[in-house]
Amino acid sequence: MSPIKSHEIDYKILGDDLQSVEVELDPGETVIAEAGAMNYMEQGIAFEARMGDGTETDQGMLGKLFGAGRRILAGESLMITHFTNRGSGKQKVAFAAPYPGKIIPLNLGALGGEILCQRDGFLCAAFGTKLGIAFTQKLGAGFFGGEGFVLQRLTGDGLVFVHACGTIIQRELKGETLRVDTGCIVAFTPGIEYSIERAGNLKSMMFGGEGLFLATLKGKGTIWLQSLPFSRMANRILENGRRAGGSSTEQSGGLVSGIGNLFEQ
């Protein structure tokens, strides 16, 4: 658990497939966010970029630099932005993900004080949330797990917000095993064991279209999956752009056409 009790913030999710989260802060309350995630803020909100999440009360500069390096390894920015209500009444600040999808509000206090999520999945959280990283236990996951090698560990007792692409599926595992495309994993509770296995026989691995390896999730706990990993959508756009061929102008047109075709399918 984080050594600091998290601030009790209120929030509202805005939108459907291109969502943002609007956080309401009482005077003196703070929300921390990934750099560049802010949409808008009311007049009483003050912000400051810091090299840490605010829970490093017993760490010196070297410890903060080490923590910043771990965040970069997890796909996040060097600095964490702290937004604090310096006004006399309630004030609001809103954040949005960098690509289309959903924002998942998670109450760490109700989830055992910790979750593991995909690298670059963190959006914002109540002050008091500790941001860290976790490595998968098996070496095979490191080489073949895609997004799964370095995971983010979010610890505390307050609200955190994770963003994902596509539709969000929440599953409760009660000891059974679920095999998942590695890019589709968003987050899971610590009771879930993560590993990697081959995607069938050699023919299935090479021509099945599901990749060479699948993630295996088993144990007891909650998992969140995304229907459309951003990497998959980006690859489809690039593939349509390459198919267009021709000059750079024709390629640009083909890329736009490819994007349009994605929404027609």
Distance between the termini: 45 Å
Unreliable stretches, pLDDT < 50, 5 or more residues?
247-251, 253-265
Average pLDDT figure: 79
Task: Give the radius of gyration.
Answer: 20 Å
Reported for the largest beta sheet, the result is: 7 strands, antiparallel
Taken from the alpha-carbon principal axes, the silhouette is globular
User: Could you name the CATH homologous superfamily of the largest domain?
Assistant: Mitochondrial biogenesis AIM24
Number of strands: 17
Descriptive account of the structure:
It is a single chain. The protein is 22% helix and 42% strand. By secondary structure, the protein is an alpha+beta fold. The chain folds into two domains: 10-226, 4-Layer Sandwich (Double-stranded beta-helix), CATH 3.60.160; 231-264, no CATH class. α4 (230-244) packs across α5 (248-264). The longest helix has 17 residues, at 248-264. The termini are far apart. 34% of the residues are buried.
Identify the notable features of this structure and list them briefly.
disordered C terminus; 5 helices; Double-stranded beta-helix; single chain; 265 residues; 2 domains; globular; alpha+beta; 22% helix; six-stranded antiparallel beta sheet; seven-stranded antiparallel beta sheet
